[in-house]
Specification:
It is built from six helices and six strands. The protein is of the alpha/beta class. Strands 3-2-4-1-5-6 form a six-stranded mixed sheet, with helices on both faces. Strand 2, helix 2 and strand 3 form a beta-alpha-beta unit. Helix 4 packs across helix 5. The longest helix has 14 residues. It is globular and about 45 Å long.
Length: 189
């Protein structure tokens, strides 16, 4: 039985921090890029993959350049689309609607937004296409939680318990055998 190593990194601090950033695209701060580079210094990876959103792809470009490789951009690693809430500060969104969403994002997606199950399906597809060698994926908090759900079987209440600040890294050991779940090997906030 073989295992592969997968590192999931949340992008650096975006210029529009504090908002519901799904499809809303914005640059990452220079400090955010530097924080990602510092977090990844000791990671031995042969591949760097990123969401196509600038807050992730800009970090991935810097990380890949340090390793002398070209980053791969894959839109399946995008954050959940928050629909009508995208780009808004959470305090400006109806508290009841937001609470229903956090309790069951599949039954109560944001207006015109993406359902949790759609996010899970596209992340599962992206995971299926990963190389066998150690890989670093620069992505988003919701996408990291979807990967934990897929690979480790965590339920939603467990997923919300993970604190995934910007530039945090989650290391996973994943077995090729379908009967084995992923195993968390580290979380670097």
């Amino acid at each position: 039985m073989t295992a592969r190593i997968l590192y999931l990194m949340r992008h650096g601090t975006p210029e529009l921090a504090g908002r519901m950033l799904g499809r809303t695209d914005c640059d990452v701060t220079p400090e955010g890029v530097a924080a990602c580079c510092a977090q990844a210094q000791e990671l031995a990876v042969q591949h760097v993959i990123a969401s196509d959103l600038r807050r992730a792809s800009q970090c991935a470009e810097a990380l890949a350049a340090e390793r002398g490789v070209a980053p791969s951009i894959d839109p399946r690693w995008r954050e959940l689309d928050f629909g009508a809430w995208d780009g808004l500060e959470s305090g400006t969104i109806d508290a009841d609607a937001l609470g229903r969403f956090w309790s069951d994002p599949d039954a109560f997606p944001p207006p015109r937004g993406e359902r949790w199950s759609a996010l899970v399906a596209r992340v599962a597809s992206a995971i299926d296409d990963l190389p066998a060698e150690p890989v670093l994926i620069v992505t988003h908090g919701g996408t990291m939680r979807a990967a934990l759900h897929i690979l480790c079987g965590f339920a939603l209440p467990q997923l919300w318990a993970f604190d995934l600040p910007c530039a945090s890294v989650l290391g996973l050991r994943v077995w090729d055998e379908p009967s084995r779940n992923g195993q968390i090997i580290g979380l670097w906030p």
